[in-house]
Specification:
It contains 30 helices and no strands. It has 495 residues and is mainly alpha-helical. It is flat.
């Protein structure tokens, strides 16, 4: 097969096939595939490169025409030369990759920049050398603007050993004063790693806007960028600016960012640290409350538990306050937690139950048995967790009664999951008895539980008592009559 007009159909079909596997989920046309490749982000182009190289090569050359084959095909595709040459630069044949890179000099654009980045770490030294020259040439022209569209690819390439020697060349271009606007535009990337690199470039290339770029980074929707920004504050900004941005972090919607901001705020010794700790002690996130409690004790010598008790007694029955008492309370808080067992919100009742079990309330076993029949799936889940602590044992009778009273699928799913706390044969008996009571999705959950029981059956070699064996056999027959499943024979065999 030759490059040129005769191979036009073949390379287009192969190209579309790779695009379909990497960039789209539908059946794109050739024109749509070209558009998808030109609009792809850096990580998508990296995946395209890997998939194209694994594919069967449609580029076969003959000795003697190898030097001009790629160029002749590119000339035959004037409107799609950049697409073809990028695709050819991903080929498994080193000669084709080399000639593609040479030809891309005349098609400087985003795909040429991507090809140069990808091939700098090529395993064939001649190809890597050509790619390095192309990278340098592109960096010295207006085409360098496209590198800011590929920051996510640059971040991925930085982890590769062969790319390290070329980073200094590219870094000086990315920090050049002429690309100030391009660095700002890169902040709109959909990739967090690209935005982080863009912020870093702005921080080093445009120090006059350091405060603005760090403030924007702290409010980024991803922890990767926000935590990076918090780590830069001490080396870049004065104390007043640091305080302002840390307060921004304390208001973040990300709990990990609020936690990190609070830790840094307390260590910086700002005057209103106690006030900020008081707010953080009532945060909706347990991790933030834990950090606040630590610094409250370490810096001011005050007990966070006493703070929560005062807030509760003053009528602050917020979910955060109850959760804090549940997690850190003591026996003296039993009455406070009991008052919340009748709360209209199931999540609050679950928190109160968890706290009472944790502090070892005298009637905690009765509380767990009652909670199994609660109308809230949150409370049922808390009861299951309480039994899992191992202090009290869940009986098949209590679980069966709770299942029969459960009215919603979410509660039944929780109870099916709780059956893992029963003994080996008790669990099988419970699961089999529920088939006549369930239908549809609930039976699929029962099937999964039975299959899990089968997979783990050889971990325990206890044998069932004769009476229980008879009960299980009857339940198995009833389950088989109400539902068809492939695992019945295996259950019968194990029984």
């Amino acid at each position: 097969m030759w490059f040129g007009k005769k191979s036009e159909l073949e390379w287009r079909e192969a190209f579309v096939a790779v695009v379909r596997r990497t960039l789209t989920k539908n059946e794109p046309s050739f024109e749509e595939s070209c558009t998808a490749l030109r609009n792809a982000n850096g990580m998508q182009l990296l995946e395209f490169d890997q998939q194209a190289r694994r594919s069967f090569s449609h580029f076969v050359t003959q000795r003697g025409v190898r030097s001009s084959a790629v160029l002749r095909t590119a000339m035959a595709e004037p409107g799609h030369a950049d697409v073809f040459l990028f695709y050819a630069s991903c080929d498994g044949n080193g000669f084709i990759r080399e000639q593609s890179l040479r030809a891309l000099r005349g098609h400087a654009g985003k795909l040429a920049c991507a090809a140069a980045l990808l091939r700098t770490e090529d395993w064939v030294s001649q190809v890597a050398e050509i790619a390095a020259r192309l990278l340098q040439d592109l960096a010295d022209t207006e085409a360098a603007r496209h590198f800011f569209e590929l920051l996510d690819l640059i971040v991925a390439m930085q982890s590769r050993r062969r790319f390290v020697q070329y980073w200094s060349t590219l870094e000086s271009t990315l920090l050049a004063a002429k690309w100030r606007d391009a660095r700002q535009e890169a902040l709109s990337s959909s990739k967090a790693m690209a935005r982080r690199l863009a912020h870093d470039l702005i921080l080093r290339g445009d120090p006059d806007v350091a405060r603005d770029t760090l403030g924007l980074a702290i409010t980024d929707p991803t922890p990767l960028v926000a935590h990076w920004a918090l780590a830069q504050l001490g080396d870049t900004l004065n104390p007043e600016e640091q305080e302002q941005l840390l307060r921004e972090g304390l208001r973040s919607r990300l709990s990990s960012v609020r936690r990190d901001s609070l830790r840094r705020y307390c260590r910086s010794g700002f005057s209103d640290a106690r006030q900020q700790l008081g707010i953080a002690l009532l945060d909706r996130s347990r991790s933030v409350r834990s950090v606040a409690a630590h610094h409250f004790k370490e810096r001011f010598g005050e007990s966070a538990v006493e703070y929560w008790r005062k807030a509760f007694d003053a009528g602050g029955h917020s979910e955060a306050t109850i959760a804090a008492i549940s997690d850190f309370g003591e026996a003296a808080d039993e009455a406070r937690l009991r008052n919340c067992l009748e709360h209209p919100r199931g999540r609050v009742r679950a928190l109160a139950l968890r706290g009472l079990v944790r502090i070892g309330a005298p009637d905690s076993e009765d509380l767990l048995n009652t909670a199994l029949t609660d109308k809230s799936a949150h409370v049922v889940g808390a009861a299951t967790t309480g039994y899992a602590r191992g202090i009290h044992t869940l009986s098949i009778e209590n679980l069966q009664r709770a299942f029969e009273l459960a009215e919603t699928q979410s509660r039944r799913r929780r109870l099916i999951a709780a059956s893992r706390l029963l003994g080996k044969w008790e669990r099988l008996e419970f699961l089999l008895k529920q088939y006549p009571l369930c239908s549809g999705d609930e039976r699929s959950h029962l099937d999964e539980a039975v299959q899990t029981w089968i997979a783990k059956s050889n971990r325990s070699f206890v044998t069932p008592q004769p009476e229980r064996r008879t009960i299980i056999a009857a339940a198995l027959e009833s389950a088989r009559n109400s539902h068809t499943a492939p695992h019945w024979e295996m259950v019968r065999h194990l029984l």
